[in-house]
Amino acid sequence: MPATQPELGTDPLPIIWKGEEEYEEARVGRVFNLRRPKRYPVGVLEARNVSDVIRGVNLARERGIQVALRSGGHSWAAWSVRPQSLLIDLGKMRELSYDPVTKIATASPAITGGELNPLLSRYGRFFAGGHCPTVGIGGFLLQGGQGWWARGLGWSAENIESIDVVLPSGELVTASEKDNADLFWAARGSGPGFFGVVVRFRLHTRPRPLDMHHVTYIMPAKENFRAVITWLQEACRGELGPKVEVVCLAFTRGRLFGETGPNELESMLVIRGTSNTDSEEEAREALAPMLKCPGAANAEVRAEIVPTSMPEEYARQLADNPPGQYFLGNSWLVGEPADIADSLELGFTTLPSRESFFLYYNMAPLRPLPDMSFTLQSEHYAAGYIISTGDDVPEQERCEQWLTDRLAYIDSKKDGSGGTIGMYLGDSDLAHRAGKIMSDEAWAKFCKIRDAYDPNHMFAGYLHGDSLLNVEAWNQPNYKPYKAPA
Ligand SMILES: Cc1cc2nc3c(=O)[nH]c(=O)nc-3n(C[C@H](O)[C@H](O)[C@H](O)COP(=O)(O)OP(=O)(O)OC[C@H]3O[C@@H](n4cnc5c(N)ncnc54)[C@H](O)[C@@H]3O)c2cc1C
After folding, report:
1. Where in the numbering of this chain does the FAD-binding PCMH-type domain appear (predicted)?
2. What is the total count of domains within the chain?
């Protein structure tokens, strides 16, 4: 069904231009990452409705200005903040509804997972949004969306029924498997490279988990990392079923337990399995393999098959991702358990600052993907989250170099023995490290579709352009080879 074109308003557009008093707040006030970019849009349109979006796109086209977009403001590198652009901020558009007959939720892109799920839960339904409840569904879904239980439920973008999109021409269209299928294909995976404004998502929902339990162990990383990470990979390929989401994290002892002094930076492993089942009995069965985690008997924290809930998990995610200045990088890895352990060991055992953390998700057994532009995944996902709280620049640079070195070491393994096949847009900062984000075929197809819809690249696209994208990281001009620690 084609989208109904809205009547366009004639009142002044709510644009805050550079130089006006509220400009700085409009530029970055809704950006999660406190590491503020030095990029300055010409103005920020705080769109109230679809008509404002269309008028904003038309205005930008007439004046030859690029368009940048913001939904939830949670892209780590603040992709919405682009120089000389018109930033269309969708934060004031708040449509959210659920149709019990079709079981489809309709939501504006700035709606967050934490807003969507309380509504759905009243109907016994669920949508796997970002792990953190404050992530906007807009940017999250466009880049694929590694939502709750992605290992078993798949990428959240797989659950988009259709989208309404304002094209560079200013036309409003609906895209789905049936209508404008090329646009729909491109929207599910291209993330900040997408060349239209999604103003509405229609989402397939699923039954709400009736029961959630978790198993969590916390233990020193140095002594336990290799055994745990090797076991985890084997368990996920074997008896640990898809109803359990498994994450292995490294936090510092200082951050976890508030310790100061010589042990403050000691890396601690947090191994956590969270189940999504219909009953406690089923949860006990699903989580039983977690109890075989090496080192569990001597873990400093042991929580074995403990009830939890979505609100509790959301609260924990908020605590894990506190406000701060973040620097991010990630990799999809391929290799056998020992190779993966080798690639990640320093990341997990030598954190550079008290607040920083490192993450490993296992996605095995890897689910086949439907036909969409999101095409790059592997069983092993690793990401580093460098967090600084002060303005000590040399200290920040030291921490960033630490992450650069960890990723460069993974890049240096080019033969599949724990090396990378690319990165996930969601946890990337393309200004610092670009690389493969889609399969080569998908990238070629995406570029063709984008050139047809947006030949003048009116939409701001990937930070630092295309030239460094979809080539292996080590082929890039700014590539810094791995520096072994002293
Ligand atoms: C604390 C935290 C936790 C996170 N957890 C997860 C997680 O569990 N799983 C995961 O996959 N990711 C996660 N992320 C990453 C997050 O999903 C991405 O950064 C995503 O881009 C955020 O979406 P947003 O709408 O909030 O961001 P924004 O910064 O508003 O948008 C990012 C970019 O996406 C594009 N875009 C956004 N909306 C539209 C639109 N309506 N139309 C066209 N283009 C648009 C634009 O290029 C925009 O600049 C997390 C991020 C944070 C900060």
Report:
1. 37-208
2. 1
